[in-house]
């Protein structure tokens, strides 16, 4: 069994040892999952899906892995409180990306891609006017 001498750790300064970079697609997956979780909280009986596209900007600081500006597209049930649902999605996405990727999230843009109405008894969609 080989051991690394303690002097090897201090031979290279901490600032020059390297960095961990979180891929954009990983941040997008975290954001999409967080959006789905938030939508399940606000409307547990409404099956929905959320998609996320992410733009990541890296900062030149050593204690953070960067900064993510996130855009999330969601499908919501109608009628509902759209503003409240978007607010919950925004907070959940920012919190989860910050916790799981250690990235600052100054902006989460929530785009309502589609509104859908509840199903009628016969399985046909209700017409919304």
Architecture overview:
- The chain has 129 residues and is α+β, with helices and mostly antiparallel strands.
- The chain is built from three helices and three strands.
- It has helices at residues 6-11, 24-42, 82-101, and strands at residues 50-57, 67-77, 104-116.
- A three-stranded mixed sheet has the order 1-2-3, covered by helices on one side.
- Helix 3 links the parallel strand 2 (67-77) and strand 3 (104-116).
- Helix 2 crosses helix 3 (82-101).
Radius of gyration: 21 Å
Shape: elongated
Identify low-pLDDT runs: none
Give the CA-CA distance, first to last residue.
73 Å
Fold blueprint:
Elements: H1 6-11, H2 24-42, E1 50-57, E2 67-77, H3 82-101, E3 104-116
Parallel strand pairs: 2-3
Antiparallel strand pairs: 1-2
What's a concise summary of this model?
The protein is an alpha+beta fold and 129 residues long.
């Amino acid at each position: 069994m080989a051991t690394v001498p303690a002097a090897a750790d201090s031979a290279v300064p901490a600032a020059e040892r390297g960095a961990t970079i979180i891929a954009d697609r990983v941040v997008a997956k975290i954001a999409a999952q967080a959006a789905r979780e938030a939508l399940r909280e606000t409307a547990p009986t409404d099956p929905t899906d959320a998609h996320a596209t992410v733009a990541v900007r890296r900062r030149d600081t050593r204690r953070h892995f960067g900064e993510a500006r996130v855009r999330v597209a969601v499908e919501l049930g109608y009628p509902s409180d759209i503003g409240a649902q978007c607010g919950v999605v925004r907070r959940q996405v920012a919190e989860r990306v910050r916790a799981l990727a250690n990235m600052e999230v100054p902006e989460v843009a929530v785009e309502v891609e589609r509104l859908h109405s509840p199903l009628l008894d016969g399985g046909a969609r209700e017409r919304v006017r």
